[in-house]
Amino acid sequence: MIDTSQLILFVGAAFVLLITPGPAVLFIMARSIDQGRAAGIASVLGIEVASLVHVTAAAFGLSAVLMSSALAFDVVKYLGAAYLIYLGLHKLLTKEERSAEQTAVAQPRSRLFYQGFLVNLFNPKTALFFFAFLPQFVDRSQGSVTLQILMLGMIFMGMAVCSDSLYALLAGTLGNWLRGNLKFLRGVRYFSGGMYIVLGLAAAFAGPKKN
Predict the structure, then answer these.
(1) Cα 76 to Cα 83: distance, rounded to the nearest angstrom
(2) What is the spatial distance between Cα 211 and Cα 208, in angstroms, rounded to a whole number?
(3) What is the pLDDT of residues 8-47, one digit of tens each?
(4) Which residues of 21-36 are buried (b: 16+ CB within 10 A; e: fewer)?
(5) Domain spans of the chain, in order of start
(6) Residue 69 burial (C-beta neighbours within 10 Å; 0-12, 13-18, 19+)
(7) Which of 33, 49, 50, 200 could disulfide-link to 121, CB 3.0 to 4.6 Å?
(8) What is the spatial distance between Cα 15 and Cα 51, in angstroms, rounded to a whole number?
């Protein structure tokens, strides 16, 4: 259903995004630093369950638009690429995000899961990200657009569970060093911003063939 070369490109792009610490990763790391690795894992699971909701909404919401015409397909893809570039510029031009030390008091694992779910579910940036990123790797000539987006979304989520869990374990182990480390946060900002811009430009100029 999805061309192998395009799938490899997607996995590579997703990997770059997932190893780039963003707000969700900082949220997870904060929980791990203050309350241990299990708390970080609980937050990971809550965040990714919410991501499933966003992926499903993107799949069914975008499929009709992407299949309506080649022009609509192009418009969605280029708007998505522009949004990725905007995210990169925004990260580069804004000050460091809040440090990991600004966290809540210890809470039950179930509550941490629920908080992670709600934080991601009601984050419009998460919804916009999936609407912007996933269509870049969809090919209308390869069958159902809905199934392609769902498949890509599931792959992304599976990779996200692995990478975010590693961050949770790392933060729980190196909590004292990571807490309030401004150099780390500054490096995150520059690396993350640069990667979003590169991926946005790549999506705009080297997207899959549209038939």
Answers:
(1) 10
(2) 10
(3) 989 998 998 888 766 677 778 777 877 888 989 999 999 9
(4) bbebbbbbbbbbbbbb
(5) 4-205
(6) exposed
(7) 50
(8) 16
Are 2 and 149 in contact by the 8 Å Cβ rule? The answer is no
Q: Of 120, 131, 117, 156, nearest to 14 (Cα)? A: 156
Give the closest residue to 207 by CA, choosing from 148, 151, 135, 147: 135
Asked if 47 contacts 22 with a C-beta cutoff of 8 angstroms, the reply is no
User: Could you tell me which of 117, 92, 118 has the C-alpha nearest to residue 200?
Assistant: 92
- pLDDT tens, residue by residue, 120-175: 887 667 777 888 888 888 887 788 888 999 999 999 999 999 999 998 998 878 76
Q: Three-state DSSP class for 142?
A: helix
Q: Return the closest-CA partner of residue 203 out of 125, 129, 147.
A: 129
CA-based nearest residue to 45, from 113, 120, 105: 113
Q: How far apart are CA 98 and CA 204, in angstroms?
A: 31
Q: What is the pTM of this model?
A: 0.69
